[in-house]
């Protein structure tokens, strides 16, 4: 029996499990240099990732959506606007929620919390241009609580 690539992809995705382990190298930087933070805020951009979307919003992604069951979806926390995603990214930098690990001039990760209190993680996808994509942090992520606490401390 022949299985089409679309069916094969669907079967493969339906059997995938959500991540249960997380990269132990992810750490929040203790102190962000204010000048570098301002530079980052001026230079970061948000690209998005169709694997984290059920609704394409205004992200202009190609393909527009290809949600994967092993990925957390931005839709779950109501992030449908590119403008709002970029605001969260910049606010995470302002609050010092950037990773110790860098790639070029940019932190590998930036964390933020939505207006409704959901923690987000953004991952650098283009270290030359400073383009990130983000997603909600799963409740099983050990860094989730640290992000929430640090976000509250910088109110």
| Rg of Cα set | 16 Å
The domain tally reads: 1
Given helix and strand content, the structural type is alpha+beta
Number of DSSP E strands: 6
Low-confidence stretches: 1-17
Question: Could you tell me how far the N terminus lies from the C terminus, measured between alpha carbons in angstroms?
Answer: 59 Å
Oligomer: single chain
The sequence of SSEs as H and E is: HHEHEEEEEH
How large is the count of helical segments?
4
Biggest pleated sheet: 4 strands, mixed
Main β-sheet, spatial strand arrangement: 1-6-5-4
- Could you tell me the strand content as a percent range? 15-25%
Provide the residue-averaged pLDDT: 79
Helical content band: 25-40%
Structure description:
By secondary structure, this protein is α+β, with helices and mostly antiparallel strands. The protein has one domain. It has four helices and six strands, in the order ααβαβββββα. The strands form two sheets. The protein has a four-stranded mixed β-sheet with strand order 1-6-5-4. The protein has a two-stranded antiparallel sheet with strand order 2-3. The radius of gyration is 16 Å and the shape is globular.
Describe the structure concisely.
By secondary structure, this protein is an alpha+beta fold.
Provide key terms for this protein.
single chain, 155 residues, alpha+beta, 4-stranded mixed sheet, two-stranded antiparallel sheet, 4 helices, 28% helix
Element layout with pairings:
Elements: H1 5-14, H2 34-43, E1 45-46, H3 82-94, E2 102-103, E3 106-107, E4 109-113, E5 119-126, E6 131-136, H4 144-153
Parallel strand pairs: 1-6
Antiparallel strand pairs: 2-3, 4-5, 5-6
Helix pairs in contact: 2-3
């Amino acid at each position: 029996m022949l299985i089409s690539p679309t069916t094969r992809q669907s079967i493969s995705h339906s059997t995938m499990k959500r991540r249960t382990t997380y990269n132990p190298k992810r750490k929040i930087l203790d102190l962000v240099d204010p000048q570098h933070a301002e530079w980052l805020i001026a230079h970061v951009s948000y690209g998005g990732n169709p694997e984290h979307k059920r609704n394409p919003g205004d992200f202009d992604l190609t393909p527009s959506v290809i949600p994967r069951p092993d990925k957390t979806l931005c839709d779950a926390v109501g992030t449908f606007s590119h403008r709002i995603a970029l605001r969260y990214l910049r606010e995470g930098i302002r609050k010092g929620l950037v990773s110790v690990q860098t790639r070029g001039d940019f932190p590998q990760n930036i964390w933020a919390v939505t207006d409704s209190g959901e923690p987000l993680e953004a991952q650098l996808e283009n270290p030359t241009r400073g383009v990130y994509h983000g997603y909600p942090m799963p409740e099983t992520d050990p860094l989730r609580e640290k992000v929430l606490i640090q976000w509250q401390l910088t109110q």
